[in-house]
Amino acid sequence: MVTACTLKHCAGKEYYCALELTLQVIGGKWKPIILWRLGQDGTLRFSELRRIMPNITQKMLTQQLRELESDGVLHREVYPQVPPRVEYSLTELGRSVLPVLSEMCKWGHAFEANHGTVGTGRGAPAATGATGDDLDMAVGEV
Asked: Between 56 and 13, where is the model more confident?
């Protein structure tokens, strides 16, 4: 017998199941990539994140970083100097999601192996079965 989920509230979010809550915190196009890069590269400045993810706008990166910070997944350190220097790093909570992202990347490689790849015109291999794709270039190989 299927039991209906009840509405829950946590950290200002409404959700019916833990998976829904997880996706609210780390889901979307950019958050997993931000988290993965910080996990792989350690502490990064805003400009370094922009360089790593050239397709994200400054406004979107700012928004995503603020959301991740407010959820306690990343730490923002502001250094009082001119010009201001701001660095981002993962919190312990943020580091705890890295194994999940690693498994998602492995799943993507398996999907790619089954379906092949097509080059994007940005230096990626154009032949079916190629190993590189935009996500791999953004997050690195696992």
From this structure: 56
